[in-house]
C-alpha cells in the first residue's frame, strides 16, 4: 500500500457519509479509521477542515481516535487547521493532546496559540513539562532549536551496556528514536554516542564509555535548519544531537524532520528562483492576499529596472527610426541573453545550495562558463543569421549575429557571477532569480544590440 | 563537529604532504584518517582524484584504510572517481572491496564497469553473490529496484520474539538497517513488519505474527525513485520495503538513500525550471561539452519561438514607425508579463511536485490566479502609468497601463495553465520552464500591446 489520492477521497466520503447520519455508528467509524495511517487521516481531516469547512465533523473524527492517535494525527495538520481544531476544544482536552504529542510538535502548536490560551494552558501543566515547553517554544523559527525534540535517549557516563539497554526499554514509549543513544556526563555535556545496533552486539558488562564513539557530530541550537538538514543528509544520520550555548545537549533533530526541512527549503529555493517570497503553506492553501504580496514586490521593482531598457531604446531612437527592421530582432536577442543568463545563475545558485560550488570556486566556474556560453552564443548566432539575411539583408545579419554572441556571453557571465557577488555580501544567492537576471540582461542587451547596429550602420 | 570546508582542506594538505615524503609514515596517515568520517575522507579523496589528478596518492590513502572502511569511503565517491580508483586496482582487490560494500552501492559501481571487467569479476564470485549482484544491477536507473539494498533483516513467520531478536543480532553487522524488521511467509511474500523498538518491549515468548503490523507500506521494484522518496517522507519511514512482480520482497530503500533521491530530484526540478537538461553530476564536475549540450537545446528552440514576437513587431511596423516612443515600453511590458507568468508556472510546477496541487485542483487554481494576477496587473499598471504620461503623453499612458493589466493577466494564466496541460498529456509539468513561459508570453505580449496601441492611436 502506498499513498493514493483515490483511496483517500473514498475514505473522506465514507467518513462524512457516516457522520451525516442521525446516529453515526462509532464502531464503523473507528474501524475505518483504524485501517488508515495517521498521515493519511491527517490529510483527510485537513481537507474536511479547509475545503469543506466542516469543523464539527473533523472534531467528531478526532474524538473517535485514542488520545495518542489523535495527537499523532494533529501533528500532521498544517498550522491553520491545528488552530481551528484546538479552537473547538476545551483546555482539558487540549492539555491531554499536548501531552501525547512529540515535544517538537507540541512547541510548534503552542507557538500558534494566542497569549491568553497559552497562559491558561501553562498554568495547568506540571512544572517540569511547563519549563520544557517554554524552552522549546522560545527558539527562533528556522533554527535547529525550533525543529528539535527533547524526547531522546540519554545515557549517563559510567553505565554498563545492560543498564543502558534497560534505559532504552524504559524510554522506548516516549522517545522519538531509540536507535541512537547519547552519553552525557554529570554536567549534561554530550561526550559520546552509540547506535542501538552497537549496544545490542556488545558484552552486557562492558561500560558504554568504552564502546561509544567520542567524536560526535552535533549542531548548535541556533544553527539554521537548512544546514541541519545538510548535515543529516551528508552523514546519513538517524538523528543529529543539538547543543546549547553552554555545551549541554538539549535535543535531537530526527531524520524525518530533516527530510521535511530539506523539502521545504527546496521549495523555498525554487520559489525564490522566480522572485516569489517565502510561503508558509502550500500554494493551494495560502490566502490570495498573501500570494499577491509575495509576488508583487519584485514584479514592481523590476518594472522600474526595465525602464533602463526603455531608456536605452530611447537613446537609440534615431537608429531604430532609420531601420525599423531592427526592432524585429529585439525580443529574440534580449530573450536569448536572458534565458542563457538565467540558466547560468540557476546552476550556480543550486550548486551553492547543495554545497557543490563554494565561493572559492569562482575562478574555475568563470573559466568554464566562458567556454560554455561562448559556444552557446556562436551556435545561436549561426541559427539566427539566415533569418537576419532574410529580413534585412547582410548588414542586419551581421549585426544580429554579432549581437547574439555578445549578449549571450555577457548575459551568461552576469548570471554566473551575480550569485557569487550576493554570497560575498552575505545576501542569499537565490536572490539572483531568473526575473532579476533577465531584467539586468535586457537592459545591457538593448545597449549592446543598438551600439553594434549604430556602429555598423553609420556610414564611415 | 560538523562539515567544515576549512578542516577538510587541511586534512587534504596534510595527507598529500605526508605522501610526498620519501618514506611516508603509515602510522601518522592512519591516525589522521581514523579521526575523520568516511563521508569526509570521500570528499577529500574525490578532490585529490578530480582536481589534482593524483590517482597514486588516492590509492595510497585507500590502501591505509581497512577494507571495510575503504569500501565505505568508495561508496561516497561519485561514479567517475570510483571508476578511476577501480581502474588502478587488481581484480582481487576490487572483489574484496565489493564484498564489503552495501549491496546497492555494489550494484551501482558494477553498472559503471565495462563488460570485460564485469565478466572477470563475476567469474570469481560465489554463486549466490553473483546472482544477487546481477539482479540488483539489472533494474532500470531511477527506479526503486536501482536504489534499494538487499541487506535487510527478514524474519520467518512463526518465529518467537526471542528468536527474532537473535536473528537481529546475527544480521546486525551486514544489514543496512536493523531497526525495521520484515516478516516473510514461506513464499517470500511480505506479510508484516515491526520496529526493533516494538520487538524490544515485547514478551520474549510472543509470536512475531501476533505483534507485527499487517498493513505494510511497500512499493514495487519499478516504481519511480521520486515517488519512493515521497512515500518515505510522507510516512516518516526508516526504510521502505520493495516488492517484485511476483509479490516477493526483494529489498528496502533506506531513509538516507531516499533523502539523497529527494535532493537530486529537487536539483533536477530546479534545473528543468530553467530549461537545463538533467546533469548526472554536480555543475562543478560535469564536462563542459555536457553542460553545453544540456543548455543549448531549448535555447536554440526558443530563438525560433521568439521569431513570433519579431513577426508581431513586423506586422505593426506602421504603428511603431508612427510612434517610436512605444518601443520604449516594449521590454518592460513583455518582461513584466513573462515574470508574472513564470511565477505562476513555478508555483504550479512545484505544487504538483510536492503533491500539494493535483490535476483536479485546476478550476480552483484558475480562480485564485485570476484574482491574484488581476491585482498584480492593476498594481503594475498604476506603477507604470505616470512614466507613460512623462514619455509620450496621456494616450501612451493609457495604452501602456491597459496593456500591462492585460499582459500580466494573460501571461499569468498561460503560466498557470501550461503545467496542467502538460501533466494532462503525460509530459513532465516542469517542462513549463521560465524560459518557455517567458517566450510564449513575449509573443502574445507584443500582439496585445501593439493591438491596443493601434486601436487607440488610429483616428476614428
Tell me roughly what share of residues is in helical segments of chain A: 55-70%
End-to-end CA span of chain A: 77 Å
- Multimeric status of the protein: homodimer
Structural class of chain A: mainly alpha
Low-confidence stretches of chain A: none
Shape of chain A: elongated
Description:
The structure is a homodimer of 460-residue chains. Chain A has 460 residues and is mainly α. The first copy, chain A, folds into 3 domains: 5-138, MgtE N-terminal fold (Alpha Horseshoe); 153-255, CBS-domain; 288-457, Tetracycline Repressor, domain 2, CATH 1.10.357.20. Helices cover 67% and strands 6% of the residues of chain A. Chain A has 22 helices and 6 strands. Chain A has helices at 5-20, 26-34, 38-50, 55-64, 67-76, 79-87, 91-100, 103-112, 115-123, 127-137, 144-147, 161-171, 196-200, 208-211, 225-234, 255-272, 288-315, 317-322, 325-328, 330-353, 362-424, 434-457, and strands spanning 153-156, 180-184, 190-195, 219-220, 239-243, 249-254. A 3-stranded mixed beta sheet of chain A has the order 1-2-3. In chain A, strand 2 and strand 3 (190-195) form a beta hairpin. In chain A, helix 3 (38-50) runs antiparallel to helix 4, helix 3 packs across helix 5 and helix 5 packs across helix 7. The interface between A and B is large, with 122 and 123 residues.
Amino acid at each position: 500500500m502506498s499513498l493514493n489520492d483515490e483511496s483517500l477521497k473514498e475514505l473522506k466520503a465514507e467518513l462524512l457519509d457516516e457522520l451525516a447520519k442521525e446516529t453515526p455508528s462509532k464502531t464503523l467509524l473507528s474501524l475505518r479509521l483504524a485501517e488508515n495511517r495517521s498521515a493519511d487521516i491527517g490529510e483527510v481531516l485537513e481537507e474536511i477542515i479547509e475545503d469543506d469547512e466542516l469543523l464539527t465533523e473533523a472534531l467528531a473524527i478526532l474524538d473517535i481516535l485514542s488520545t495518542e492517535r489523535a495527537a499523532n494525527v494533529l501533528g500532521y495538520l498544517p498550522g491553520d487547521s491545528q488552530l481551528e481544531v484546538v479552537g473547538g476544544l476545551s483546555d482539558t482536552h487540549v492539555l491531554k493532546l499536548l501531552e501525547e504529542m512529540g515535544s517538537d510538535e507540541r512547541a510548534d502548536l503552542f507557538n500558534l496559540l494566542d497569549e491568553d490560551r497559552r497562559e491558561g494552558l501553562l498554568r495547568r501543566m506540571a512544572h517540569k513539562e511547563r519549563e520544557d515547553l517554554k524552552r522549546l517554544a522560545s527558539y527562533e523559527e528556522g533554527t535547529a532549536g525550533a525543529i528539535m525534540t527533547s524526547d531522546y535517549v540519554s545515557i549517563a557516563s559510567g553505565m554498563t551496556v545492560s543498564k543502558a539497554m534497560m534505559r532504552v526499554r524504559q524510554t522506548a514509549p516516549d522517545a522519538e528514536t531509540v536507535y541512537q543513544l547519547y552519553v552525557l556526563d554529570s554536567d549534561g555535556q554530550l561526550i559520546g554516542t552509540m547506535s542501538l545496533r552497537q549496544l545490542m552486539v556488545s558484552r552486557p558488562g562492558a561500560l558504554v564509555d568504552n564502546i561509544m564513539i567520542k567524536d560526535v557530530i552535533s549542531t548548535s541550537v541556533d544553527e539554521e535548519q537548512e544546514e541541519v538538514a545538510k548535515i543529516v543528509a551528508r552523514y546519513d544520520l538517524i538523528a543529529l544531537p543539538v547543543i546549547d550555548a553552554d555545551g549541554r545537549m538539549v535535543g535531537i533533530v530526527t531524520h524525518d524532520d530533516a527530510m521535511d526541512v530539506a523539502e521545504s527549503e527546496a521549495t523555498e529555493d525554487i520559489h525564490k528562483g522566480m522572485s516569489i517570497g517565502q510561503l508558509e503553506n502550500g500554494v493551494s492553501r495560502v490566502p490570495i492576499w498573501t500570494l499577491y504580496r509575495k509576488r508583487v514586490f519584485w514584479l514592481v521593482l523590476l518594472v522600474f529596472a526595465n525602464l533602463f531598457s526603455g531608456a536605452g531604446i530611447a537613446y537609440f531612437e534615431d537608429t531604430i527610426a532609420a531601420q525599423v527592421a531592427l526592432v524585429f530582432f529585439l525580443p529574440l536577442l534580449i530573450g536569448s541573453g536572458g534565458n542563457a543568463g538565467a540558466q547560468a545563475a540557476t546552476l550556480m545558485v543550486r550548486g551553492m545550495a547543495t554545497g557543490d560550488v563554494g565561493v572559492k570556486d569562482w575562478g574555475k566556474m568563470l573559466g568554464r562558463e566562458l567556454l560554455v556560453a561562448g559556444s552557446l552564443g556562436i551556435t545561436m548566432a549561426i541559427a539566427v543569421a539566415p533569418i537576419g539575411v532574410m529580413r534585412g539583408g547582410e548588414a542586419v545579419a551581421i549585426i544580429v549575429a554579432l549581437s547574439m554572441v555578445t549578449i549571450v556571453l555577457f548575459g551568461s557571465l552576469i548570471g554566473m557571477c551575480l550569485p557569487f557577488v550576493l554570497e560575498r555580501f552575505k545576501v542569499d544567492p537565490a536572490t539572483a532569480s531568473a526575473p532579476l537576471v533577465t531584467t539586468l540582461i535586457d537592459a545591457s542587451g538593448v545597449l549592446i544590440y543598438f551600439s553594434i547596429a549604430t556602429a555598423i550602420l553609420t556610414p564611415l
